[in-house]
Automatic annotation (TrEMBL):
Lineage summary: Bacteria, Bacillati, Bacillota, Clostridia, Eubacteriales
Name of the protein this chain belongs to: Uncharacterized protein
Domain of life: Bacteria
Amino acid sequence: MDVQPIGDDKLVIYLDSDEVKNLPAPPCEITTDEASDILRLALGSTYDQGWESVYFELFPGRDSLLLFALQHSGNPYYYVFPGIEPLIAAAAACPSGLISYLTYIGDTYILIVYPWNGEYPPQVLYEYGEELTRPAHYALHLSEHSTVIAGPTALDELHAAFK
């Protein structure tokens, strides 16, 4: 397993054909939980709690896997929206560049926002949505059990789509 840092709080992990054979699933079917396990294994004793909230991008090959891991700074904030219209209005009012994901579960839109450098999310989100208090790992649950509509810049994507 080849692990290379590619900036602050970012890693790329390469698994070759022998390592891919030991994965619990084929590279094209790796889940977020399994990617987290790969990250823990790759970092070994250097793994710390800061890696509990991570954005993954996986690029499976026929007999290899390239995994990018981006550590989010700070805990995520979750917002529930009653419909798409308030969410679009919130996206239009927010500053650009926020790491954010939009998920849909049941009949509810949930926006996950990762503020920069431990700052707080934009206050306008409270005007359009209701904050949902959940632990940081709830984002992993949502990535597995809901439909991820947009991300990692969901607010920017919504604003661009509905200008």
